Amino acid sequence: MAYLDNIAVFVRVVELGNLSAAGRDMRISPAVASNRIKELEKHLGVRLFNRTTRQLMPTEHGNVFYTGAKQVLDAITEAEAAVAALSGQPRGTIRVTAPLGLGRRLIASGIPDFHDTYPDIEVRLRLSDHNVDILKEGIDVAFRLGVIEDSSLRMRGIMECERVLVASPKYLEARGEPTDPSELIGRKHDCLMLRYPGSREFFWTLQMPEGVVKFEVHGPFDSDDGDVLTGWALAGRGIINKPRFEVEPFIRDRRLQVILPKTPPTPVQFAAVYPHKKLQDPKVRLLLDFMADRCQKLIRDILAGK
Q: What Pfam families does the entry give (predicted)?
């Protein structure tokens, strides 16, 4: 098993780009990860990485070995999943990712309950508002809000979520409440955007009488953390476009106010995406079923004020 462990560390270092990230992911120290790479290089008689101050880049030998090593690990995972399906005792590790706000409100709190139900399944949750490449980074399930365009992934829709434009009473008193979407641009309202490398949020799409219309709004600052945007809105610094369940508590206590209710943003799809082969894994199916049911109930309860 030591050789397979070395291969597994090598694969994660390639996927995550450095020893520290791979070590955290596999729950070993960077020193142990480094030693396993050295053992593998000694066994193969070649250098697998070119080392820089920030990142390990695979050599030509490393790229060739990664392709075969990944296939070996995938084959073992599939074989274990097949045995688990026959035995009715799913076990192993699931790597999950979700946006920060969604993950904190809906996903994270459900992980311990899922583990209580299926104690032989470990879950490693990564929260990020960045666009995570789930194939490259070895993610099993990604919970997402928005359009899923990657045809190499499968999608399980969980629910369609209403979105709203909201701002604080303080902001609206200072800047005036827009009565028509054109005023967002014409009166140069501060529209706060979620942006990060690879982000596509450069406009808001609103439901107008003539159909869906894109508005290229602007603001004085943006962030790659959706909860930061909510904090800015609460502080009176601008207007945000959010799934209603994320801001409903602030709407109820009147810290935020819905604006332009007759021309709301288009709804956003809440879904889970995963590589095609992962649906064959019983532990992934169990997690999808568990989280879909749980998240639907949580969102309904939030919107009902429970």
A: HTH_1 (PF00126), LysR_substrate (PF03466)
CB atoms under 10 Å from CB of 285, counted, come to 17
Binning the chain into helix, strand and coil, the percentages to the nearest 5 are 45, 25, 30
| CA quadruple 290, 293, 299, 301: dihedral, nearest 10 | -110
Question: Is pLDDT of 14 > 90?
Answer: no
270, 159 Cβ separation under 8 angstroms: yes
Q: What is the pLDDT of residue 231?
A: 96
Indicate the burial class of 274 (C-beta count within 10 angstroms; 0-12, 13-18, 19 or more): buried
Shortest CA distance to 297 belongs to which of 143, 106, 160, 134? 106
Residue 55 pLDDT greater than 80, yes or no:
no
Residue of 156, 155, 128, 149 whose CA lies nearest to 224: 128
Task: Give every CB contact of residue 59 below 8 A, 6+ residues apart in sequence.
Answer: 46, 47, 48, 49, 50
135 within 8 A of 275, measured Cβ to Cβ: yes
What is the identity of the amino acid at 204?
W
In this prediction, residue 179 has a pLDDT band, given cuts at 50, 70 and 90, of very high
Tokens of 166: 């909201």
Report which secondary-structure segment, H or E, holds 100: helix 100-102
Condensed to tens digits (0 to 9), the pLDDT of residues 241-282 reads: 999 999 999 999 999 999 999 999 999 999 999 887 655 678
Arithmetic mean of pLDDT, 41-57: 83
- Give dist(CA 304, CA 306) in Å, integer: 6
**Residue 173's pLDDT band (cuts 50, 70, 90):** very high
Q: How many CB atoms lie within 10 A of CB 31?
A: 10
Element (H, E) at 167: strand 163-167
